[in-house]
Write the structure tokens for this entry.
Amino acid sequence: AGRRPFPVVCAADADAKETTKPKVPEKAPAAGSSFNQLLGIKGAKQEDNIWKIRLQLTKPVTWPPLVWGVLCGAAASGNFHWTAEDVAKSIVCMLMSGPCLTGYTQTINDWYDRDIDAINEPYRPIPSGAISENEVITQIWVLLLAGLGLGALLDVWVSHNKTCFGILRG
């Protein structure tokens, strides 16, 4: 028979008694900066400050595309003018879409991935215990309600006859 280009190990050849578990890193590499940690970038330095950990869960690095979406949408509408009111509406919309609702989805994603992260990335805030489960649940609700509240404010502010929340109520 021809020679194989790679070694082949059959199950019978392996020692059944010898089992090795892959080594799981106990903490993130310390090479990353605190700034990377705040942005939610993988491999960042660990933080102890609860507010920095909360910010990390919202992954600010994911916000810029949404801010650009608000700016481009406002510009494309033809209704945006550089008045204080239009700028304020845009800023409220950016807060709603970035920190509140994207932060909500990023935090809830980390919450549901906590068991997987406990194996693959045990240094992340939730599986490492850097933030308690109650604090995470509170953050999820606060971000969701803040985002919905800002959405309702914008709905009323732009004078919709029947607001989105009014439609949902029936």
Notes: Residues 9 and 15 are 11 Å apart (CA to CA).
